[in-house]
Task: inverse folding
């Protein structure tokens, strides 16, 4: 009986975590597709506009956080990054990192 | 339905949408990678930035949904970039987009025809070609209709006095007239009242014509008569005009007249190529006249009862669903989208929010919390670019700019202007590939 209870608790935690992951993934996609106007579909850029597809999530998150904090100059990115919370930035970084060929 | 069930369904839906090689057997297009869930039929009216993006992204989010795009033109010439054609910096052919990749790569059914009637109750559209299509959801993205707000200016004289506010032959006509003009002539540009397609478009047009004149006809002038007292990115444009075109000096190539000082154009006389403007009805003669008229939502939106007294289409901010007719969504320039401008980027962004929402509706999942961006670059000179950007969210039931974010290029940092001119061209390549590619 104890074993069953533990399993139920474990499954419950798994389910909560998955829902949170799914919410983050959806938030990442929602924001990520708005970037595509400049960074291209799935984040494949043009000319000077860098490709985001498949980039390391931690590096993207750090870069966006620097833009948001005004620690990095650029064209529109310092202005756009200020529009997102830390959780948004984490989600969108994870989204682009998850895209693979 | 309890929240837990909702979220589990959403999780399952998203998991199925992940690109994990779950494609339909035998399907070759990119959309196959997205998996299938929803089913249903979405019909889209209009193949500009809004309609084409919506078609592609619905299929990208869920290839199980049938998408039919109805657009009369076999090709689409973008308004973005068309001012650059006036300066001779770009060929019109390079601004011409095609629909074949939406079909081949994304599995969108493209029908080149005109929608003549929308039956909101029966959920169907009638085409000029005779057929009727039924839909589960309809997206209307018809762009703008030009108004006859200047006396003497209507479609019967567009071949003599171009508006060039829908890119294509009108752009070529204006370019040809400017090239044919003798040095020392005056080009009159009548700027429209708010709201209108592409707020920075008129000052960019002034800039691009000035760039051509400076190189080729340096004794010529531009007289910009405005129905407003200000314009988009005004400080940045005027700073650029001072740097490049002598703005503010006796030899300025550009004179801009606000409404308060007699700028509002009332009448056009094609016979003697003049306009009458302002409360004192002052007459101005031009060798070339470009009138950008007032605008409203595209004709089909008016005909289908999607417009309010303003002439534009009110929509639910989160879903772009018409407040007049359920199951019909209006996106792009024709719709009223809170703080968002009427721009190609805005239409592209609205299309994605609308696409995600429709996919969720057809899958009977919880609606997605939306987020939008607008980014517009303008050229003031060949190597002199400026930009405006904003992130949007829903606040107080309205699309509003996220506070503390967005804005225009730093007016004090001139070092970024050449880079932003390059970004403007890269922006064009990205947004058009994201929309039609």
Result:
């Amino acid at each position: 009986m104890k074993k069953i209870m533990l399993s139920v608790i474990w499954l419950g935690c798994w389910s909560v975590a998955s829902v949170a992951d799914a919410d983050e993934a959806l938030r990442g996609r929602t924001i990520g597709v708005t970037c595509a106007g400049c960074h291209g579909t799935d984040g494949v850029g043009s000319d000077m506009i860098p490709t985001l597809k498949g980039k390391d999530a931690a590096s993207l998150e750090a870069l966006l956080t620097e833009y948001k904090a005004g620690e990095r100059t650029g064209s529109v990115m310092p202005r756009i990054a200020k529009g997102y919370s830390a959780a948004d930035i984490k989600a969108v970084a994870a989204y682009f990192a998850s895209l693979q060929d | 339905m309890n929240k837990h069930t909702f979220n589990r369904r959403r999780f399952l839906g998203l998991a199925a949408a992940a690109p994990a090689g779950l494609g339909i057997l035998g399907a070759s297009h990119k959309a196959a990678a997205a998996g299938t869930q929803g089913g249903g039929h979405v019909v889209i009216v209009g193949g500009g930035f809004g309609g084409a993006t919506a078609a592609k992204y619905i299929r990208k989010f869920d290839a199980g949904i049938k998408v039919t795009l109805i657009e009369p033109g076999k090709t689409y010439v973008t308004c973005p970039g068309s001012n650059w054609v006036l300066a001779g910096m770009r060929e019109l052919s390079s601004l011409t987009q095609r629909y074949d990749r939406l079909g081949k790569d994304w599995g969108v059914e493209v029908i080149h025809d005109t929608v003549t009637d929308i039956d909101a109750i029966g959920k169907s559209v009638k085409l000029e070609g005779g057929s009727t299509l039924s839909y589960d959801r309809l997206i209307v993205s018809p762009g703008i209709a030009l108004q006859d707000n200047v006396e003497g200016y209507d479609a019967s004289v567009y071949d003599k006095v171009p508006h060039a506010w829908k890119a294509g032959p009108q752009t070529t006509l204006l370019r040809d007239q400017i090239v044919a003009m003798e040095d020392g002539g005056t080009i009159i540009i009548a700027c429209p009242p708010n709201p209108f397609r592409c707020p920075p478009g008129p000052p960019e047009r002034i800039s691009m014509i000035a760039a051509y004149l400076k190189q080729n006809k340096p004794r010529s002038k531009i007289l910009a008569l405005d129905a407003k007292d200000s314009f988009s990115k005004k400080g940045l444009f005027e700073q650029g005009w001072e740097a490049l075109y002598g703005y503010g000096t006796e030899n300025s190539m550009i004179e801009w007249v606000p409404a308060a000082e007699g700028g509002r154009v009332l009448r056009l006389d094609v016979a003697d190529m003049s306009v009458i403007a302002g409360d004192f009805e002052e007459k101005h003669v031009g060798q070339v006249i470009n009138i950008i008229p007032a605008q409203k939502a595209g004709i089909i939106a008016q005909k289908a009862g999607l417009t309010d007294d303003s002439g534009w289409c009110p929509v639910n901010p989160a879903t772009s669903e018409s407040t007049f007719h359920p199951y019909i969504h209006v996106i792009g320039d024709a719709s009223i989208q809170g703080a968002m401008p009427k721009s190609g980027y805005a239409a592209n962004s609205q299309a994605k929010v609308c696409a995600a929402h429709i996919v969720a509706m057809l899958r009977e999942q919880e609606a997605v919390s939306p987020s939008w961006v607008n980014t517009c670059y303008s050229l003031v000179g060949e190597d002199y670019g400026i930009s405006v950007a904003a992130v949007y969210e829903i606040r107080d039931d309205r699309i509003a700019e996220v506070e503390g974010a967005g804005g225009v290029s730093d007016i004090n940092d001139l070092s970024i202007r050449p880079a932003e001119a390059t970004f403007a061209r890269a922006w064009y390549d990205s947004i058009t590939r994201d929309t039609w590619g």
Notes: Chain B touches chain A through 47 residues (CB under 8 Å). Chain B has ten helices and 25 strands.
